[in-house]
Amino acid sequence: MADFILKEPLIFTDGTGFDVNPNTQIFAKTSGIDVVFSIAQEVSTSSNVEFADLTLTDKLILDNDTFILRKNEITGSFTHTGNLITSVDNTFVHNGDMTIGNILTAEKIVSEISQSATFFESGSTLFGDSLDDSHQRTGSLSISGSSISINYGSVTEISHDTTLADSNATTLVTENAVKTYLNTGVGVFQTYQRKSFAHTGSFVSVSTASFAAVTASAPSGVTATSEDDFMFFVNGAIAEYDALNIQQSGSYLYLKVNNDSIGYDLKDSDEIVAWGKFDNPYYLDFDGLTNEVTTNFSGSNAVSLNKTYSWWMNSTHTARNYSVFGYGGNKRAFTPNFSSGRPLMWNGGNWYVYWEDTSAQDDGEWHHWMLHNDVAAITGSKLYVDGTLIEVNAYVTSGTAGVLSQALTIGSYQNNSTNTGRHFEGSIREFAVFSGDKTSKAGVYYNSGSVYDLTGESDLQGYWKMNEGSGITVTDLSGEGNDGTIDGATWDYIP
User: Fold this and answer.
1) Among residues 147, 165, 185, which one ends one of the domains?
2) How far apart are the C-alpha atoms of 466 and 293, rounded to whole Å?
């Protein structure tokens, strides 16, 4: 074949994104030469093609199975920087992950994945779509609306009103408001919420039992005390309250039984016990200087007889503490800590008995004391504290017992004493005197630390409960009529 020689030189030159090799060579040879034309990247249907700029007049489809753009659809993950604007009339659907690096502004956002939350342009929000949804928040929460609704109930405010005067059903009060109110505003209610006490009753008739006790009075605004505030036991069996009525008459509470409803009559041999809201137990405080209670029990010049004394006592006085009771003269009296802390019972010169020291005489707690004073044979005297026998320390029997020069005085060794060294310092209640030896009942009368009502007990000669709470008279509940007169001692009560 003949050679073709061009009249003018043929020059191949590189263009933008287009390579020629060899480049710029003049083709005027008579022999053949290979020229390679190429661009910077592959452009096959499976290639990853990159463009610096892209101008579209119709549409663009990119599909590499990872990121796909199609009509009304974006598939795959991508990061968008800048503004993304869609028509308000169209719906934007994104099926992959979306990360927004700046502010997202929307009239309403609705999430329908595992939790439901709706945000409105007005600032209103809606969280959850069922009652079992739980929502957690970290940080402070400020609510400026008029109320909070919980289970269809509303809370309108948190109040610091320490008087609770508004009685608002939609107000929550603060801890400080409640504390202040309880400390200053409900003393009368705290008084009523007292402990319950037990009392033993006495037979009056087949339908009535009597208790030497006073029911707790309810303050204004509180339902009055009724039989519903008590339990009554007959021989250990509880009596049905709807067949009972109670009646307060002075210092006695009467139990009225509907015999037809309860099904039986009360008997003289029945043990009848009441448990409920009786008045707080009162007691008398003695100052150790001049305070005492005088009585007419066993008047002057009476021959000393064997007796048992039962009482409850509380004292913190650790020095010599004259006298819990006496009959005139310092050698006719009982002293709880006379010498070296030892309790002493005087019956006359060189006629007395010491017991071992006991902490009950000055530990500031209430303790039950029972003393059997054997005048004729001083060695037969016994002392029990809280139902426990106290060991004897010493007997002195070289003298003889003297007569009782005065009637019984509680809190001093004699009536109307001005001797400050012969008075008891502490508190006393439930003072009783029995004929003979009653120490077999020391544990019963101690009653595990609860006062045992001695009304109606056999051999009872004098019984001053000291539970009146006011006035200058303490009533003798033994039936002997030896009421006591308070001289200086003051009332207090056990809360």
Assistant:
1) 185
2) 10
